[in-house]
């Protein structure tokens, strides 16, 4: 634990998470910036709970506020962030001009609405300036990859013959561009859940989750790594970033794993894979749950329920891989004196779960996401008072509002640019053309089409935050699946592309979560990414199950079906994990490894024939490993 305390979490976040690379303020400037951020958070509460403004006014004022704050906090270059209380004159100008472009929309809203597509030259100039400044905000806060994608789509619109006036009108003055669905969801649901996450963080719920994980799995074989898996799954319930999750829990779990004997690259990979899985963990799913509800016209409760079993399967896959690795290398659990008592810990701090319970309960009974989030925030404030070490003081209360506003900037910037992509697809019909191209390329063979869609998701998702990532996938790639395989439920197609967009965070060469984990462990980032990809192999299998067996998402299913896919999928994951690790009860020869993986993959196809073949193969391997090997006294016990 001493090594964990020496890790500079803030420095790591600034290095690997662009959203954390902010300017440093002290003294009076620090107070001014804090006031601006707190006012923004309070404005969010007012806008969502009391205002009756038109949707265009709500979204425009939200983006204008975001742009102003972004230029106050984010420098043009990383190195500039080290200078205290320094904001160059051009950033002040850009912040004011950018906010003014959106203020122009608000002031002239009625006139612009009456003109419709007949916008003036001045309107075009304001729109172009607003779009360019929004793009610069995204470059500073999120990075270049998403801008490259958006730029390619805009270039296509010009190539397709659309005029500058038409493109600017669509992207800046309608609800199909910057002010589209992504910003609409961000300004109502996502921002409140980000603020909720800030309040939960201030109650030290992250430490509680790590302690809980220790009490559950700390003493087991390979305990430290299993603790990382469990704690990252729990933190994923409120964390909206794979990198933040990796650094937050990894600063504690990775050093402990290394001390227990795990290879440094493997230790970092476990944390990166588990933390990335936090983005698919209900109820929040990196805030993508609310976007998915909007874009699929499905209730939030349905989305959250659909995500439960796949998330369990994902983390079970990593858990099994860790278990077999520990058995193979002879790693033990933590000493008993380092393990907290589960029941004592739960009764002492279990109340910290209450905000999440309130959130799920209120949304399940019909409350809007905004009101449910506000009630959860209120609950977090109340329950924090139960103990001194979790109590929110006036200072931490203000810090929670401040951090919530700051954390919103990156998500909002990404959602703005994602809205541009959605707008161009809507304007040009590009999505259908891509589907036609993929249909031709795949030769009409469904599994090839799904594989090509997976590759597209992995490429488009590199370096893009979860929320914007999902918007891009839902706009470009989900319609491809629905056109190629019309019988596929909409929810299954969206979950398919969402999963592959998320795992881009651990897939080399970008692999931001793997880079962050390797920085803590001192390992090789590329090797860490490769190992993390192997550990998260379930994330490359589960999405195919969504499409081939939608019952897994609780879509038009029955109890017998739930029992069937629960047994077969868990059995398949057990076999695949053992086959990839090359170990179960003892070392698996190459032919057993191949059979184990093949048997597990057989269970992806939901037909009775493939299930029976897969089960026979897996039972055969288990019989050899656990019955014959167990009777063979010559086999060394591990």
Short descriptors:
638 residues, mainly alpha, 31 helices, 73% helix, 0% strand, disordered N terminus
Short characterization:
Helices cover 73% and strands 0% of the residues. With 638 residues, the chain is mostly helical. Helix 7 crosses helix 20, helix 21 (430-442) crosses helix 24 (478-484) and helix 29 packs across helix 31.
What does this structure look like?
By secondary structure, the protein is an all-alpha fold. Among the domains are: 185-307 and 319-410, no CATH class; 566-638, no CATH class. It contains 31 helices and no strands. It has helices spanning 2-5, 9-16, 27-49, 55-73, 89-107, 109-115, 121-141, 145-159, 164-172, 181-202, 205-217, 223-235, 242-260, 264-277, 288-296, 300-329, 342-349, 354-364, 369-384, 394-428, 430-442, 446-460, 466-476, 478-484, 490-502, 512-521, 525-535, 538-548, 559-581, 590-602, 608-631. The longest helix has 35 residues, at 394-428. Mean pLDDT is 84; it is low at 1-5 and 633-638.
Strand portion: under 5%
* Largest pleated sheet: none
Helix/strand class: mainly alpha
Shape: globular
Helix content: over 70%
Average pLDDT confidence is: 84
| SS summary, helix count | 31
Low-confidence segments, given as residue ranges, are 1-5, 633-638
- Rg of Cα set: 25 Å
- End-to-end Cα distance, whole Å, is 28 Å
Number of strands: 0
């Amino acid at each position: 634990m001493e090594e964990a305390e020496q890790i500079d979490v803030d420095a790591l976040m600034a290095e690997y998470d662009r959203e954390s690379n902010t300017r440093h303020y002290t003294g009076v400037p620090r107070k001014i910036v804090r006031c601006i951020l707190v006012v923004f958070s309070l404005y969010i509460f007012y806008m969502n709970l009391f205002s009756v403004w038109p949707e265009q006014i709500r979204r425009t004022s939200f983006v204008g506020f975001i742009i102003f704050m972004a230029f106050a906090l984010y420098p043009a270059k990383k190195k500039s962030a080290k200078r205290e209380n320094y904001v160059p004159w051009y950033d002040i100008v850009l912040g004011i001009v950018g906010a003014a472009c959106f203020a122009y929309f608000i002031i002239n809203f009625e006139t612009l609405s009456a003109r419709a597509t007949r916008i003036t030259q001045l309107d075009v100039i304001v729109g172009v300036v607003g779009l360019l400044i929004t793009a610069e905000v995204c470059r500073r806060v999120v990075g270049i990859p998403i801008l490259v994608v958006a730029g390619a789509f805009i270039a296509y619109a010009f190539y397709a013959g659309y005029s500058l006036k038409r493109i600017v009108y669509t992207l800046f003055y309608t609800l199909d561009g910057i002010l589209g669905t992504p910003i609409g969801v961000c300004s109502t649901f996502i921002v409140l859940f980000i603020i909720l996450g800030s309040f939960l963080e201030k109650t030290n719920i992250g430490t509680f989750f790590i302690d809980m994980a220790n009490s559950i799995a700390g003493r087991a074989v390979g305990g430290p790594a299993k603790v990382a898996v469990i704690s990252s799954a729990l933190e994923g319930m409120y964390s909206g970033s794979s990198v933040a999750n990796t650094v937050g829990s990894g600063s504690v779990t990775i050093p402990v794993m290394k001390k227990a004997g795990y290879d440094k690259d493997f230790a970092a990979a476990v944390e990166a894979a588990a933390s990335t899985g936090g983005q698919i963990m209900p109820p929040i799913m990196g805030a993508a749950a609310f976007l998915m509800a909007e874009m699929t016209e499905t209730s939030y409760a349905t989305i959250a329920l659909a995500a439960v079993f796949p998330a369990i399967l994902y983390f079970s896959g990593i858990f099994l891989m860790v278990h077999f690795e520990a058995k193979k290398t002879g790693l033990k659990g933590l000493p008993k004196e380092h393990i907290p008592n589960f029941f004592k810990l739960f009764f002492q701090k279990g109340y910290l779960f209450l905000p999440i319970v309130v959130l799920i309960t209120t949304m399940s009974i019909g409350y809007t996401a905004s009101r449910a989030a506000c009630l959860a925030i209120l609950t977090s404030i109340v329950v924090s008072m139960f103990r001194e070490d979790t109590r929110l003081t006036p200072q931490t209360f203000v810090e929670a509002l401040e951090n919530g506003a700051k954390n919103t900037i990156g998500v909002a910037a990404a959602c703005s640019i994602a809205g541009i992509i959605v707008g161009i697809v809507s304007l040009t019909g590009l999505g259908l053309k891509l589907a036609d191209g993929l249909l031709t390329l795949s030769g009409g063979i469904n599994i090839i089409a799904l594989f090509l869609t997976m590759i597209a998701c992995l490429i488009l998702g590199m370096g893009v935050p979860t929320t914007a990532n999902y918007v891009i996938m839902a706009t470009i790639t989900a319609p491809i699946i629905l056109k190629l395989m019309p019988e596929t439920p909409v929810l299954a197609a969206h979950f398919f592309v969402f999963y592959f967009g998320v795992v881009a965070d651990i897939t080399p060469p970008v692999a931001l979560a793997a880079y962050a984990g390797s920085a803590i462990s001192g390992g090789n980032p590329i090797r860490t990414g490769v190992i993390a990809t192997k550990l998260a192999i379930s994330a490359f299998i589960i999405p195919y199950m969504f499409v081939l067996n939608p019952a897994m998402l609780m879509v038009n299913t029955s109890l017998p079906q739930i029992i069937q896919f629960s047994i077969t999928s868990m059995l398949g994951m057990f076999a695949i994990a053992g086959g990839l690790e090359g170990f179960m009860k003892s070392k698996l020869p190459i032919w057993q490894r191949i059979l184990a993986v093949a048997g597990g993959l057989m269970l992806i196809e939901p037909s009775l024939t493939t299930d029976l073949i897969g089960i026979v193969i897996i039972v055969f391997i288990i019989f050899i490993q656990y019955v014959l090997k167990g009777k063979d006294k010559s086999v060394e016990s591990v």
